[in-house]
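Recap quiz, item 2
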Amino acid sequence: MIPELGHFALVLALVIALVQAVVPLLGAHRNRLALMAVGRPAALGQFLFTGFSFACLTWAFVVNDFSVEYVAMHSNTATPLIYRITAVWGSHEGSLLLWALTLSLWTVAVAVFSRNLPEAFVARVLGTLGWIAVGFLAFMLVTSNPFTRLIPGAAEGRDLNPLLQDPGMIIHPPLLYMGYVGFSVAFAFAIAALLTGRLDAAWARWSRPWTTAAWVFLTAGIALGSGWAYYELGWGGWWFWDPVENASFMPWLLGTALIHSLAVTEKRGAFRSWTVLLAIGAFSLSLLGTFLVRSGVLTSVHAFATDPRRGLFILAFLVAVIGVSLLLYAWRAPKLAGGGSFAFVSRDTALLGNNVLLSVVSASVLLGTLYPLFLDALGLGKLSVGPPYFEAVFVPLMTPVVVLMMFGPFLRWKGDELMPALRRVAPAFVASILIGLGTAFAVGHVSWRTVLGLALAAWVVLASLQLLATRLRERAGASAASRLATIPAAWWGMWLAHLGVGIFIIGVTMVGSLENNLDVKMKEGERVEFSGYTLLFRGVQDAPGPNFAAARANLELFRGDVDIGTLQPEKRIYLAQQMPMTEAALDVGLFRDVYVSLGEQLEDGSWIVSLHYKPFISWIWAGCVLMALGGILAAADRRYRRLAERRLPAAAVQAA
Amino acid sequence: MKAKFLVPLALFLVLVGFLAFGLRLDPREVPSPLIDKPAPAFSLARLDDNSQRFGLEEMRGQVWLLNVWASWCVACRQEHPVLVDLARRQVVPVVGLNYKEVRGDGAIDARRLAPEQELAMAVERARGWLSAHGDPYKLSVLDLDGRVGIDFGVYGVPETFLIDQRGSVRYKHIGPITPESLEKVLLPKIEELKRAG
């Protein structure tokens, strides 16, 4: 009964979404307040019914209702409760439901926090979001119903893919979807602006916190996914340039360009049509990612069960959403041209340069991801594009991005003089190159990549410090504390996020240059020396889990004579699918991880043990955390709330 | 409407054209010109004993699989349990063609290695991988420079060739073998060939 209720709630959500898509837009077009006012309650209703439907599917997992096909395919009575719950989004149908739920959550958030925006504008935003919801709910009901019954019901379920039975998997998809779907808000704001023809500084100011919030979620989601790959997949890599990773990375790149472009549009009124195009692009790439993952067009380790009918539906949806919005763009954007002019040497130019570079990187990633498809379609053969292509493109394009990223804040808006600006940053720049060279020599790994990486990281850190010092000198009379207090949260956000990029580069460079890996055969009581550490193999015991059998090794880790601790990597067999899994064990440190995974047992009783030494790898994620924190600070800046309040009377007048 | 503002739309429509075409393709399906032709002859060093060599003629009279693999190949790990299971059932002998073990790994600069160093490294890595993940192969041979791979038209690893009693290639499977593709495609074809032979 409950699955049927869930199904029915989904149908109702679709009907409400249709109302939300049509009525407010009509109201905005005819300037009828009553029709526009339908948007908010419809958004809430759609959220409640989608949420109810989601709860029903979760319930089916909790009570092991194997008469629901989706549950029988992805759960098992022995699966721990927490993984039965996360199994809801463990595969195609349920993850779509999560997508729809996330979208309705963002929609409600917009409905609630938009009291001070003009009614007609809110109506257009909610209407646009409504159309996206219609597409996704219809997609689910037509091709991918998670509530389909299995008659007769299965006695036992097949269990969730063991790779997904991990704490990282509990929050990785929700965070990622909050990011992907969050760009739908920026997209809807852009469409509403194109529809009204109103695309000014106020519009940019409204869009900014929403876009930054979505970007924060996406950053955290991607970082978590890469962390999960690192410790769960068992061979110590953290990024593979897999099509599905690229699918999340492309919207991130364009989203990064978008938040910067919005800053220029707000401050200077410039780049307006470019900003709108980026907003459309970031969300389009999110949708494209969904298409690539679920249509079977590309092969990937992440691929969901594929079905051409689904592919066709999403493609039609892509054409409708992206095609219509680009048509609208072509029609309306020419009227938006203009905005403040600026000189070649200015912060505006630096931001524009980085925007263009980030878009080019995004396009190159798209090209690499789809290249096999292009060649195949043109009858030129089949091939796969691997990490060497992406690295060859990514490093040279991102190097100027990082240099400009730190130079831009030293320039004034509108126009500045080149030579004084260069003189300001020259000491830091030269010092960075020296530090890059010096550190590479000190760690004994002089390759152009190591030197470049370390020099860039040093440049980010030094320029950040100089920027902070410059900022603090601005008000000479005040005390240090009051000078710190007057710096707005948005500035700290920018500073922290940029610093995060530097920390990230340190991690990537050090791991890439100095990581070490050793596969050894070990018997109980044997020692092995590895990268300055000693590991003592204490043997293997059985360690049965709820839905798996495991062999757990005990390895004592020593640095010199100091016992650092015991590492317990496991080799598991998940019983329902008879799938072997490697659970690595890590000694996580500030400056290095020691990573151990357990291989097969050999005939003579010894085990293959795979050892990895990963210098500075936590810095990769620490950098991402700083970027996300920066984003949070920027989105939470008081300015948005204060200006919103000040704007209230004007908006009320407009609404009336 | 100015033309330049239509550029994004035009690019998008081109992309849609490719995607629509992509829906009709199976990225795992590649026609091989070798189908129903004699498999290219080779003689390569064996992984278990480098002093011995192995060639096609040793398998004459048998239906067998030639599985292309490497320790750096991510998808091979996905496929491997299926092969181990297949070996346990003893339906068909599987010969491993270890493909560019050292040169194929982007992390290693193979140009700096002397030939004997490359061989030693390949043997160590390949054996380590097999002992870590299980060895489903009757034997494996080392295609260090990938020449035999080129003769067979290997696009990516893993790939699997089904070869009949007379040494002709009868089927090529691209990408990892899944339990489903094994049961539905490979095993029926193997049975058919065995009956015919």
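Residues 40 and 152 of chain B are 7 Å apart (CA to CA).
The first helix of chain B runs from residue 7 to 23.
End of item.
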